[in-house]
Amino acid sequence: MTREKAPRRPRAETPKGFRDYFGAEVTERKAMLDAIAEVYHLHGFEALETSAVETVEALGKFLPDVDRPNEGVFAWQEDEKDWLALRYDLTAPLARVAAQYRNDLASPYRRYAMGPVWRNEKPGPGRFRQFYQCDADTVGAPSVAADAEICAMLANALERVGIPRGDYVVKVNNRKVLNGVMEVAGVLDPSDPSKFENERGIVLRAIDKIDRLGDAGVRLLLGEGRKDDSGDFTKGAGLSAEQAEVVMGFVSAKRATGAATVARLRELVGNSVLGAEGVNELETIATLLDAQGFGADRIELDPGVVRGLGYYTGPVFEAELTFEILDEKGNKRQFGSVSGGGRYDDLVKRFTGQAVPATGVSIGVDRLLAALRAKGRMGAEAAGPVVVTVMDRDRMSDYFAMAADLRNAGIRAEVYLGNPKQFGNQLKYADKRQSPIAVIQGSDEAARGVVVLKDLILGAKIAENATLEEWKDRPAQREVARGDLVDTVRQMLAEG
Amino acid sequence: MTREKAPRRPRAETPKGFRDYFGAEVTERKAMLDAIAEVYHLHGFEALETSAVETVEALGKFLPDVDRPNEGVFAWQEDEKDWLALRYDLTAPLARVAAQYRNDLASPYRRYAMGPVWRNEKPGPGRFRQFYQCDADTVGAPSVAADAEICAMLANALERVGIPRGDYVVKVNNRKVLNGVMEVAGVLDPSDPSKFENERGIVLRAIDKIDRLGDAGVRLLLGEGRKDDSGDFTKGAGLSAEQAEVVMGFVSAKRATGAATVARLRELVGNSVLGAEGVNELETIATLLDAQGFGADRIELDPGVVRGLGYYTGPVFEAELTFEILDEKGNKRQFGSVSGGGRYDDLVKRFTGQAVPATGVSIGVDRLLAALRAKGRMGAEAAGPVVVTVMDRDRMSDYFAMAADLRNAGIRAEVYLGNPKQFGNQLKYADKRQSPIAVIQGSDEAARGVVVLKDLILGAKIAENATLEEWKDRPAQREVARGDLVDTVRQMLAEG
Question: What is the DSSP string of A166-186?
């Protein structure tokens, strides 16, 4: 083990794959999460904040058979004892909580949670090792009414944060229907579900990629396999053309109305008991949502949506934004998925041995924020503070009093606290702070009981896009009585 | 290394020293932090959210000379590379950010930050390994006007969250004055500050304990040392009685007015240049605060406050709540400190080699929350949702529509989603949810177009403290037309 002998300065660097958020990046995300929390709360969901740290044992599924179980998670060992790890999502901690507090919590337990999660993955462009999730789940409700509620709440939440109706759609499907179709295709044997498990996993992941690979690509993966552009070969599920045809029939089973889609699915699942159960569940969900006024313009049945995660056991859903944006290459494309979820009935069972039905949804916070910025709902100029400049450092009290007066009127304000010697630096500072107004009072102005207000919005607008001509009637600065400071600033801000 | 052969169920346990927060515990803390953030923002401070993970190198001071640098922090090694760790406070990440982004950030940089921090300490009663901090700091402002601003903002923040004026006091002192007094006492040699460094550390920690140990206990620690109740001996600073007298004179130098305290301190620091500088700084701070109307009822000079942390270099401050609470033994005692801070001019220098002046404050989120609960400002009955019960599971759509109607009127509402067979379970559930009202509609009521509203607030009040007599005019349940559901519920909630 090498050690550095001479002390050197530490590097000032965010660890690789992590990010720092500044100013509006923090407050805009917070505003969005607050709005979503409000919707969840209104629906009877309770806040839950678990510790960021879990035992690796409780987290479970990332535990490979190695001494150091840090694949996928950030983990460390307590002195010769338990391995601890940072949570990788908000569902695993919920399962732990639902088991641990099962005698105290109301059942069904509706909870929402928002906060950072951590993934020990290779950092890459757009791939981060800490990011926010925002989840709502119902634990202990066997009926698909709980799934319908989650779908409706998701639509409400999207509208509440500023995605207009028509710009999103919540798509609903059911894993049981897919399994029924698999039964018909001969890759699921109800008397021995362990048979063809691997093949079904491949089918699931293939369907989940249809947006990217298209029909033909998915068919390759259902059959022998597919070579991608880089030449890498992905082994397929080995289905015959007839079997693949059955599966592809399911993927494209969406019809113009929910009722028509249900009818088509009923044909496809044939005599499969599980499949019929899934179709009935979808029908119930559609009926419940219709009754609440959630028509196909907001929530629709779409057999093309399967979600990649293995643990879903019934209804699955996904919220997609339908408006177009320009991708990195300048091509128009739909914004796509910002949220997904479904029913997972086995996660709590890991702890207690008893099956506990659960369903929930997770909103991709960063993607939804990006969508709101694309819609112009966020990312507006951040309002900087009014900056009270310092002309005479013996009169700091006066400058502080001006800032206090402004704040008492609810106006964001601060006194310049750098070295006041170079006045130019103070104005540069005010610019960098996106300050709308600089307040100036030298000894001459003080003697006359006035202050000068410099309009920095004007300067910024001219620099940005307007000509001076357009603004010529607006004074670049005005002198007002000290007693009129607050009123004049308020008026200037209203004009700005 | 032992391994368990047979798979067993994982334990559903919060890791030792960590906590889960439920419902109002989450939302009340959030409301408090939101209010504080509003005050910070109004003062021109910008939000900053750094990653929870830092390199151990950047965190610095917890790095002992051992292979595994996890003393005090939770740390792990990236594959043969950097050690990473969870942040232990919000100041170390700020120093890293101030160095890393020094060319982009406005200077001075005012920032606030709130979020969890982690300490790898032995868990114990009331000692947790993850807790919230809420900080505001100004980096790059050499003038003590920045310290005065922080003190004033701290007072504003306390009042904003609900601590009335008179129930708190912000105490201000200056390390330079203490060092001046040390110079007079002969334990600081300005020509060689490294001399007596250990002794001065002991003096600092001794003074910091005066509330607990009293004058006599502190004098023992200034001299040879002190044996505590358990028999453990703490070595003292080894000061003579005369030297200790000088130090104790400083601790008790507080006078009735700030001006009188300043005058007393000027006597005590004698010819010490550093001491005189400290007294002048205190005077400037007092003058600035007076001018803004922060009198001694809110902010006062108190030489008894030194703060334990080694890195402070100038002004230090502490917010104390002055009202009394009952401690665990039923004795009255003052609530005490909820916040502290001070000037630290050397933290950024670690990275850049250039001194960057900085000052800031940290609010103890859990203690302030406890104070607000003690003052009855929080912890009121959490408002549970109106629960729409399920009498007839074929009419879930009707029940969902009722809940949706209530929510559209802004009333928190949910449909019971457990097994509806036992109606008693539904009412027990509503009770556990602290629901104010249960909505009931069986087939009979449905046929007549009415709903029954059961008043659960009434039941709770009777169970809690009132006699039935007091409530006899209030009906336990009422039947209203389905069309009057929302209006009646709203009216009942207003009465409740």
Answer: TSEEEEEEEHHHHHHHHHHHT
**Do A346 and A368 have their domain in common?**
yes
CA distance A203 to chain B (A): 29
Under a CB-based contact definition with an 8 Å cutoff, are residues B21 and B29 in contact? yes
Helix (H, G, I), strand (E, B) or coil at A481: strand
Lowest mean pLDDT among A144-158, A171-185, B378-392: B378-392
A91: annotated binding-site residue?
Answer: yes
* Pure H helices in B239-352: 241-251, 258-268, 273-291, 349-352
How many domains in chain B? Answer: 2
This model of the complex carries an ipTM of 0.90
A368 labelled binding-site residue: no
Q: Are residues B337 and B229 in the same domain?
A: yes
Give the distance from residue A4's alpha carbon to the nearest chain B alpha carbon, in angstroms: 11
Checking if the pLDDT of B66 tops 50, the result is: no
Instruction: Look at B9 and A53 and tell me if their CB atoms are within 8 Å.
Output: no
Does B429 sit within 8 Å of A351, measured CB to CB? no
φ, ψ (nearest 5 deg) of residue B29: -65, -40
In a domain, A19, yes or no: no
What's the CATH code of the domain at B454? Answer: 3.40.50.800
H or E, element range at B425: helix B423-432
Q: Do B417 and A47 touch (CB under 8 A)?
A: no
Specify the DSSP class assigned to residue A124: B
Q: Give yes or no: residues A225 and A366 share one domain.
A: yes
Residue B207: both structure tokens together: 């003074």
Residue A136 structural domain:
24-52+87-374
Q: Residue A130 is inside which H or E element, if any? A: strand A130-139
Question: B333, B354, B374: which is the final residue of a domain?
Answer: B374
Residue A59 lies in a domain: no
Is residue A366 located within the same domain as residue A413? Answer: no
